[in-house]
Amino acid sequence: MKMIWAVIRHRLKQRVEEALMAPELGISGLTCTTVHGLGHETRLLFQPHELAYCRVEVLVEDDQVDRVLQTLMDAAHTGVEGDGLVAVLPVERVYHIRTRKEGLNGTAMPGA
Q: Does residue 104 contact residue 37 with C-beta atoms inside 8 Å?
């Protein structure tokens, strides 16, 4: 299992969410959080200042990574500096707190 973590332009949040939640991708949910930060694009400005971005986090099975990654990058791409960045991180385990079931599909946890 992997977590796809991205920082994208805030104004593209809805476009990225809609692309990632397309039924054919099979993603059951995602998290979007407004964040502020400084990046390479600040060198273009007279005074560095924080810019608003959106952090997107999606948990996916290993066989979904390439398709979800490509979809996210296509939806977030403008070709202008400051488009953001994306990382793929390993995830050892995921549990649903309410049911105590493990995994994205919520299979029973050992000993539960």
A: no
